[in-house]
Amino acid sequence: MEIIGYLASILIGISLGLIGGGGSILTVPVLVYLFHVEPVLATAYSLFIVGSSSLVGAWPKYKQGFVNIKTAIIFGIPSIIAVFATRKFLVPAIPSALGSIAGFEITKSLMMMLLFAILMVAASFSMIRSKTGNMDLKEAAQKFNYPMILLEGAFVGVLTGLVGAGGGFLIIPALVMLSQLPMKQAVGTSLLIIAAKSLIGFTGDLGKSAIDWTLLLSVTALAIVGIFIGDVLSKRIDGHKLKAGFGWFVLVMGLYIIAQQLFFPISSVH
């Protein structure tokens, strides 16, 4: 299973390199089901893996002029504050046992996995239904909808903190609609925002539990290799068709996790 896990780690990076997102949706399931990492800890690991991979992926986009620093700062600050506060204060405050419904015990790990699976399903619809035409905006003077950008940034930050996903499928449309960014700039800027908030969010977990740095750095390194592979493939493959296909894959995985957690829960994930 670990060999499959390491291969899947490369797939995380390939997804980020190809479509500018989606890698974070794979990270938590890979850690939980293939490396047997406890779900709450897996969300912390995911922040580091996704943050490091996105940072590496953002650099070539920056050199190509596809990263808008001003937008990254305006959107990123509330997002960074929210993700750090969520990991530092909110996640530890959630009790291990949340109660039971009709004899079914609801635990913190179960809640985190179900929330993540619901996010996967939502992300899959966003990827399957994405259209090319209305997202390719021409260069124009930027007009910032500051209240909505601040609100969206904070919301994405809380979501990132809870489930360990970068939230690119939420950030990219927001940057296009609220910041008037062209699609290519939105993808590059999104990678920088994801990198900053994920890595800073990860620091909120330091000192709380033992971290398997060998596993974490191995998966991160393979994901970074995947980013370069994805960047090469993106020049040869129709990204929109690939995104839709990946969306269907994520939908199936999300539904599987919901069914598995509700009907066949893993008794001991360590």
Q: In percent, how helical is the residue content?
A: over 70%
The rounded Rg comes to 18 Å
State the low-pLDDT regions, or none.
132-138
* Total count of strands: 2
What is the helix tally?
Answer: 10
End-to-end C-alpha gap: 15 Å
Overall pLDDT score:
81
Q: What is the chain-wise order of helices and strands? A: HHHHEEHHHHHH
Structural class assignment:
mainly alpha
Description:
The chain is mainly alpha-helical and 270 residues long. It has one domain (2-263). The protein contains 10 helices and 2 strands, in the order H-H-H-H-E-E-H-H-H-H-H-H. It has helices spanning 2-19, 23-34, 39-63, 69-93, 108-128, 146-163, 168-178, 183-203, 213-233, 239-263; strands at 97-101, 104-107. Strands 1-2 form a two-stranded antiparallel ribbon. Helix 3 crosses helix 8. The longest helix is centred in the N-terminal third of the chain and has 25 residues, at 39-63. It starts with a helix and ends in a 7-residue tail after the last helix. The model is unreliable at 132-138 (pLDDT under 50).
SSE map:
Elements: H1 2-19, H2 23-34, H3 39-63, H4 69-93, E1 97-101, E2 104-107, H5 108-128, H6 146-163, H7 168-178, H8 183-203, H9 213-233, H10 239-263
